[in-house]
Amino acid sequence: MMEAGETPRVEEVARRAGVQKTSIYRRWGTLESLVFEAVDARTRMALPLPDTGSCHEDLKIYLAASIAFHRSDFGKLVTRLGVQIPEDARREFWRKRLEAASVLLSRGQSRGEVAPDLNVGLAIEMLIAPFYFRALVSGEEISPSLTEALLNIALPAFLRRPE
What is the pTM of this model? Predict the structure, then answer.
């Protein structure tokens, strides 16, 4: 049995899953890869991508969920671990997250709500960067009011401009 704070071993994970440790290695290669995939899956569940038909509403829901995530114990852990994992794993995690979240603005582009020339990947980075800055640098609270503040600053820059 593992003690609190103890790092699991492949043998323990395999035993709990009822499989041979070779199954873990065959599927994930390393215990770190298995943990990374589990964290990625849980993060995707915590940060669903809404599709309300309105870019503003989708972003509002997504940012509110992001704030709740960052205020949770799991979100705080993921944020801290995110700077400690190997660079290739960190890049892959963020590539997936940014690609997924970018669909919120891409949908807005296809509906004509968002400027067609907007770099949606960079725009998503700009929206979520304050969470990491506050968590890792400034120590400022990640409060629910941050959703409206971010949208008030960002949306005018993202919206389709009259021709």
Answer: 0.80
